Amino acid sequence: MTSDIKFYLELLKKRLPVMVVIFTICAAIGVGMALTLPPKYRASASLLVESAQLPDTLFTTTVQTQAARELQAIQLRLMTRANLIDIAGKYRVFNDVGSMSPDAIVELMREQTDFQIFNGGRDNTTTLRLSFNAGDPNTAADVVNEYVTYVLRADSDRRTGESGETLEFFKQRVDRLAQRLAEQSTGIVNFKEANSDSLPENQEYRLDRQSTLRERSNLIGRDRTALVEQRNRLLAVGNAAVPAQQMTPQEVELNRLETELRSKLAIYAPDSPTIQFLRKRIDILRSSEPIEGAGGVQNDVNTVLELQITEVDSRIESLGVELDQVEAELAELEAAIERTPKVAIQLDKLEREYETTQTQYSEAIVARSTAEQGVDVEESAKGERVALVEQATVPEKPDSPNRKLIAGGGIFLGSILAAAFFTLTELLNRTIRRPVDLTRGLGVQPLATIPFIEQASTRRRRHFLKIFLVLLALIAIPVALWAVHVYYLPLDLLVEQLAETIGL
């Protein structure tokens, strides 16, 4: 056991220069990066989505977007190419921003921006935390505050814009419906004027009028028949031989009127104008004095008969004219009554369309009022909105890099790699270096072994070479890393490129 320890100690001394070189390289890289990496300052700001300051029972907002979705939409607009390039140029976020390509600026800005949304659920508060990393603390704070300004302005513009667009939509809808109502109202009025004789609301009157006219037509027909019969009787009386001494003209006329009265009572009521007129004439004849004279009696009778026949003919003609008028009106009424169902269907259709439009118009008026209320709420900032809770301040200490961790990581990695080198070289080495290796390799037990005897001068040269290589590594490796960092590419960027190349 003691011999094995001595053997491995000798091997460690032998491989120590290479292990020191490996350790030095890793430690130098770690320490070099810890010393050369530029500081990164992180500035942050907090925002929250405040609920509406007015109760839902008193107003209804016209902006219904959920808070988390709204913030995601704002994030997408904030992280657009144009915005990031403008902000980077405005605050000179990168020292060589003038020589950088737009793609590189956008990529770095997005990498150094942290946009975190914390959704507390339906009944909890939704918050937003904006952060930015920059090499200068003032720049980091300025960029975050610029982000905050954009978010607040975008939220306000979006909410007022949406409420304004909603109001404008309902204003236009109200105007369109009002115009449609006017057109439909005019159409209904014109339709009623064109079909005024067939409107359904007057159908009952037309039916009553039709019945009345039919009764009047029948009555006129009976009157004409009676007058024709009366005329025939008068003609018969005129043709008969009437002695002049027996009847006076008053008596002949009285007999005729009494005969006509009896026939009229079968048709008219006792208080009708016709009956009263006949009775009045009879009373006048009865109260008048008789006309005397023997020679002129017959002539007087003929004259009276002619007058009566003429009067009857005039009445028959008048009743004929009246009957024609009644028949014409009846024909118009029957045509209007037949057209009434079709007119009623068309009018009902027009009125239903008008009522539908009127309902839509009333609903649009209510919606427009709600939209106006929503605009007032959003313009007065009383609705749900994004509010600033904590403004970004200039950080006093850099947030990164953690120089102690980086340096310690390089030293630790160097130690691990050096130990791994020693272990792997021993495991892969199959040469015979000890008596026990002869026994294990050949299966025989040697009687004696003679070690390799190195000359003192050779041993001194070998030791000197090892010391020289170690010192060279300790000096050359840091100098080479410094030269690469200064004259070729900063180590942090070089490490990032190597990581991208190997896919890390």
Task: For the structure shown, list the relevant keywords.
504 residues, alpha+beta, Alpha-Beta Plaits, 13 helices, four-stranded antiparallel β-sheet
Describe the structure concisely.
The chain is built from 13 helices and four strands. By secondary structure, it is α+β, with helices and mostly antiparallel strands. It has a four-stranded antiparallel sheet with strand order 2-3-1-4.
Residues in helices, as a percent range: over 70%
Structural class: alpha+beta
Order of helices and strands: HEHHHEEHHHHHEHHHH
User: Low-confidence segments, ≥5 residues, pLDDT <50?
Assistant: 241-245, 293-297
Total individual domains: 3
Total helical segments: 13
Q: Main β-sheet, in a few words?
A: 4 strands, antiparallel
What percent of residues are in strands?
5-15%
Q: What separation lies between the terminal Cα atoms? A: 44 Å
Gross morphology: rod-shaped
Q: Can you list the strand order of the major beta sheet? A: 2-3-1-4
| Topology, number of strands | 4
Question: Radius of gyration, rounded?
Answer: 62 Å
- The averaged pLDDT comes out at 76
Describe the overall structure.
The protein has 504 residues and is an alpha+beta fold. The chain folds into 3 domains: 2-37 and 401-501, no CATH class; 41-172 and 375-390, Alpha-Beta Plaits (2-Layer Sandwich), CATH 3.30.70.1130; 200-368, no CATH class. 71% of the residues lie in helices and 6% in strands. The protein contains 13 helices and 4 strands. Strands 2-3-1-4 form a 4-stranded antiparallel beta sheet. A hairpin with a 6-residue loop joins β2 (113-119) and β3 (126-134). α7 (249-265) runs antiparallel to α8 (273-287). It is rod-shaped, with a radius of gyration of 62 Å.
